[in-house]
Specification:
By secondary structure, the protein is α/β, with parallel strands linked by helices. The structure holds nicotinamide-adenine-dinucleotide. Nicotinamide-adenine-dinucleotide binds next to helix 1 and helix 6.
């Protein structure tokens, strides 16, 4: 008999803790781990997943920020530095949904980028997602349902100068996502990337000053001439718009969407 991975209605997952205020949403009874959830896109994902009833494991190196978001969404904070493999392996392994979101940017030409910075970024943005999935996929396979959402970037599909560590990490995450899609398919587990262009978050706000320096232009020109040069839609995307796509991937009707890139780039890659 053909096996499908359509989500079962409100799952019986026994002792899972859920927020009673939101337990009736699309994701009631599900547990969702979101990394980098203290800020920006991760925070928006935590809020949106919790609004649909998921219990959110809020993972972030910023312990105070993680506690704040966890208390806002009725979830649990897990302060952890994802550049430390032991800390990653100490995270819970019972999530039904994993949103690999934590990331950072460094802007410098290859010959000026510190190799240790390159290595740390690969640990946070590639090795940590692998380690988290290495430990959470067996539970998803056992329960016959799981959703992996990797927050990649338009830089998982295209390169830009001065972003070697970031572009390399996002391209690697794309590969990991596709392998998990192939391995997870018989077990009801989908794996996809979400690929935004520039999102209005602290990560981008921090980049503007550095981009101004590297390109030798005033900060006021960075948004219009650097950040919005390639998207056809001339505005930044909001974190909540990215989170909506993440929730869509975790909700009903998307069980056949796997190994895909959900490109939210305002037309950047249409060029
Ligand atoms: N902002 C954008 O324009 C944009 C575009 C495409 C993709 N993305 C991706 O979205 C993700 C989130 O970015 P954002 O813009 O919301 O950034 P952000 O800086 O607002 O948030 C990133 C979060 O990750 C956490 N983090 C960083 N290093 C960590 C570590 N070692 N261990 C644990 N947590 C750590 C930070 O503390 C922070 O809370 C990143 O993977 C980024 O590459 C962002």
């Amino acid at each position: 008999m053909e096996r499908t991975n359509e989500p079962s209605p409100a799952p019986a997952v026994g002792t899972r803790q859920t927020s009673s205020a939101t337990a009736d949403g699309l994701l009631g009874g599900r547990t969702a781990m979101v990394t980098g959830a203290a800020s920006g896109i991760g925070r928006a994902c935590a809020v949106a997943l919790a609004a649909e009833g998921a219990h959110v494991q809020v993972v972030d190196v910023d312990a105070e920020g993680a506690e704040k978001v966890a208390s806002e969404v009725g979830g649990t904070a897990y302060p952890a530095d994802l550049s430390d493999p032991a800390a990653v392996d100490g995270l819970p392994a019972d999530a039904d949904i994993v949103v690999n979101n934590a990331g950072l940017q460094r802007v410098a030409p290859v010959h000026e980028l510190d190799p240790d910075t390159f290595a740390t970024m690969q640990r946070i943005m590639v090795e940590a997602p692998f380690r988290i999935l290495h430990r959470t996929l067996p539970g998803m396979y056992e329960r016959g349902w799981g959703r992996v959402v990797n927050i990649s970037s338009v830089h998982g599909l295209r390169a830009s100068p001065y972003k070697s560590a970031y572009v390399a990490a996002k391209h690697a995450l794309e590969g990991l996502s596709k392998v998990v899609a192939l391995e997870g398919a018989p077990h009801g587990v989908t794996s996809n990337c979400v690929n935004p262009a520039y999102v209005r978050t602290p990560l981008v706000e921090r980049q503007i000053a550095r981009q101004a320096e590297v390109h030798g232009i005033p900060e006021s020109e960075v948004v219009s001439t650097v950040l919005l040069e390639r998207p056809a839609i001339k505005r930044l995307i909001e974190p909540e718009e990215v989170a909506r796509t993440v929730v869509w991937l975790c909700g009903p009707g998307t069980a056949y969407v796997t190994g895909a890139d959900l490109v939210l780039d305002g037309g950047w890659t249409a060029h």
